[in-house]
Here is the input.
Amino acid sequence: MITLEEVKKNEEVKAFIHASQKQLEALGYTEHSYRHVGIVSQRTGDILQKLGYDEKTVELGKIAGYMHDIGNCINRVDHAHSGAILAYNILKEMGMPAEDRTEIVMAIGNHDEGTGTAVSSISAALILADKSDVHRDRVVNQNISTFDIHDRVNYAVTDANLKLDEINKKITLNLTIDTEICPVLKYFQIFMDRTMMSKYAAKYLQIWYELIINGTKLL
Here is the structure.
């Protein structure tokens, strides 16, 4: 079985992650490099593992999380779809069986809130992991006076904790937002689609999605 560690060593994957960050940084986007994909990969695997999925499914989820944003090296627009195609070809060359490749590309191709939705357990876990990574560490721009709304909201989040309670069948995103930098309302202004996508993804996994901001339960 192809493992996450093997994927991490693949030169094409490294090149695509590097190019993705280079392009998005030029466009003024938040960080989508090794920090982000590493967090998404780990959280995707953790969700699947805690829900009792087998080792193979967990590993496929980790790989999907690690490769989910490589399409940004082509263009931000439709990056989920182009990334799925890139991932399919890379994993094929690495010798991964077609059935496993298909599970990964389904997840990658459906992780963007503009065009995707939860269509499998791996895709649902990937969505929850990806949309939970909101934090000031993702802000590339160091000049707060020139922040756009995405920079400001991400920078205002000083702590983001995603916790799965497998006993009570509930996953909670707990955020701490510095309201002197950005009001909580701004979070929903730009992340409402992501929030609803996460709620549906949790439903697909037969768990409840809960959002807590500054100690107040909002969902």
